[in-house]
Structure formats: structure tokens, C-alpha cells
Design a protein that fits this description.
Layout: H1 4-11, H2 17-31, H3 36-43, H4 49-60, H5 64-117, H6 126-133, H7 138-159, H8 166-175, H9 179-200, H10 205-214, H11 219-233, H12 238-243, H13 250-262, H14 265-325
């Protein structure tokens, strides 16, 4: 029941040190004529664009309390999703870490000692010679791999912060074979999640479309959606316009087309979001369940390879030595 000014005044008396510090600043900015979204953007650097768009739309439509409630519930749901994802991938991450440690010990601690005991390796099988040549070098290969990944990702992240270069990079990511499917799947989820958020809050369709576009990270796909939205504003059916973006599948196109004909756009888009969420959870669970056994088999394969490459020639040497003694 409090208005925005009263709410900020109460926040200024909160025990949380950061909230107590920021609330008076926001209040002074609002009193000077700034919108809440603009004030928050000046105070917090990492606010998601769709959140700011929701707040801006809420202020423009005088429904700020409802939009803040929507953002709160969406934030709670996102926190639950992250916790479920972390609980799903925790075991595979532990297995991967253990696999790296075992391989490191195997190649950099055990193999060098075995290699020192074998003076002449020229007559050994090729596999044995190759495995022995890798002794003591796993740590170096691991370090090079980490630095190579860092040297690729850091320039890419920094380049995406440059306004003139980011559109080129985003276009490349959205059209690169293999990666394009992941980028479009993520964008599809962002688009329909934001669209569902606006419709569930009773916002006008134009505001919902603007909100959906603001939630897209990829500039190339965001511009594609902007072109589709202009078609919608000119009178083209929503399903047909969005289908031109390449973000929806045939099933979703039919669902949107039926929703427009029956006037049930909000529940249909909510169902599409729920279906995407369920598919995403099933995919994450399946990958997590496969990752553990795969890396366990990988460790077993490494141990078996080293054992066969080293033990086999040692047994042959022992047999030759026994024949000489006899």
C-alpha cells in the first residue's frame, strides 16, 4: 500500500548497508524527475535490459506495483532454476575434476618413474613409445589448453563491448554452423520468457513485444525481431511475422497461429514457455547423467592404455630374460 517515495524512505531505514546507502540516492533522482528505471541503471551496472524495460513500461502505464511484483516472482523462479541446475551438474563437475587429477598423477608422476626404469624403448610397440613420450607433459598440455581458452574468450568478450564490433561478432555467432542452434535456442527462450512476462502482467501487446526484444542479448537476432515487430505493427499476423525471424519451430508457429484465431495468446505463450522450460530441464538432466559415466570410462580407458602399453613390453622382457637364464 505504499507509494514509491514512501517505499524508498522505508528502505533508507533498512539494516542492510548497501540498501540504506542507495535508497536516498534513488529518492533524490526521482525527485529531480528521473524515471525509476533510469535511476536504477545509473546505480547498478549489471541489471538485465528486460528488467529495466519492465520497470519503464510499468511507470509509463501507471502499473509499477504490478510490474515489480512480476519481476519479484520471476526472480524467485530463476533462482530456483539455478539451484536445480547446480544440483544437476554438481556430480558431473566432481567427476570431471577427479578425472583431470587422476590423469595428471598418472602421466606426470607414475609414467616418468616407469620411463626411467626402461632404458631401451626402441624395440617397444609404437603405442608404448607414444605413451612414454607423453610422460611428464600432461600438466604442460593442461596449462596450454587453459591459456588458449583464456586467450580466445577474453578478446571475444572485450570485443563484444565495442559498439562497432559487437554486431559483426553477434552475426557470426548467430550464423556459425553448430553454434547457431545453441544461440537461437537461448534467444528463443529469452524472447518468449519476456513476452510471457509482459502478457501475464496485462501489458499492451506493443509493450510486450518491446519487452521481448529488450531481453535478447544477440544484436543480430534483436534487429531481426525488430523487423518482425514492425511487420506486426503494420498489421501482419504475429505468427507469420515471428516465423520470419527463424526463432520458432513449426509446432510453435501453429500454436501462435491458433492462439491469434481464438484470442488466447497469453495462455498459449505461457504453455510454449513451460514446454521450453521442461525441454531445457530434460536436456540438462540427460547431459548431466551422461557426463559422469563418460568421464569414468575415460579414466578407465587411460589407465588401461597405460597398463597395456607399459606392462606388455615388461612381460615380454621378463619372458626373454627367463629364456636366457634357462
Amino acid at each position: 500500500g505504499y507509494n514509491l517515495t514512501e517505499a524508498l524512505q522505508l528502505m533508507a531505514e533498512d539494516d542492510h548497508r548497501r540498501i540504506k546507502k542507495i535508497a536516498p540516492v534513488l529518492l533524490s533522482r526521482l525527485e529531480s524527475g528521473l524515471l525509476l528505471a533510469d535511476s536504477l541503471k545509473m546505480s547498478f551496472r549489471n541489471l538485465r535490459p528486460e528488467w529495466l524495460a519492465v520497470l519503464r513500461i510499468g511507470e509509463e502505464t501507471a502499473r509499477l506495483d504490478e510490474t515489480c511484483g512480476l519481476l519479484f516472482h520471476r526472480r524467485v523462479e530463476q533462482t530456483r532454476q539455478r539451484r536445480r541446475l547446480f544440483s544437476t551438474i554438481a556430480y558431473p563437475l566432481i567427476v570431471i575434476f577427479a578425472t583431470i587429477i587422476v590423469a595428471w598423477i598418472l602421466f606426470d608422476s607414475i609414467l616418468p618413474e616407469l620411463a626411467d626404469t626402461l632404458q631401451d624403448t626402441a624395440e617397444m610397440p609404437k603405442v608404448s613409445q607414444y605413451v612414454l613420450s607423453m610422460s611428464g607433459q600432461f600438466g604442460m598440455f593442461l596449462e596450454r589448453g587453459v591459456w588458449g581458452l583464456v586467450l580466445v574468450l577474453i578478446p571475444l568478450v572485450l570485443a563484444r563491448r565495442i559498439p562497432l564490433i559487437r554486431p559483426v561478432i553477434d552475426r557470426g555467432l548467430a550464423t556459425l554452423p553448430g553454434l547457431r542452434h545453441l544461440i537461437r535456442a537461448k534467444t528463443r527462450w529469452q524472447y518468449f520468457e519476456s513476452l510471457s512476462l509482459g502478457l501475464s502482467g496485462g501489458l499492451p501487446l506493443q509493450s510486450c513485444l518491446e519487452l521481448a526484444m529488450a531481453g535478447i542479448d544477440n544484436i543480430y537476432l534483436r534487429d531481426t525481431c525488430d523487423t518482425a515487430h514492425r511487420r506486426i505493427f503494420e498489421g501482419e499476423p504475429i505468427s507469420k511475422a515471428i516465423n520470419l525471424t527463424g526463432l520458432i519451430r513449426p509446432r510453435e508457429f501453429l500454436q501462435l497461429n491458433a492462439a491469434e484465431n481464438t484470442g488466447q495468446l497469453e495462455p498459449v505463450i505461457a504453455n510454449i514457455c513451460a514446454d521450453m522450460k521442461e525441454r531445457q530441464q530434460m536436456t540438462n538432466t540427460a547431459l548431466a547423467q551422461l557426463a559422469g559415466p563418460v568421464f569414468i570410462l575415460l579414466v578407465g580407458g587411460l589407465i588401461f592404455l597405460v597398463a597395456m602399453a607399459i606392462v606388455t613390453p615388461m612381460m615380454a622382457m621378463q619372458a626373454q630374460l627367463g629364456a636366457i637364464i634357462q
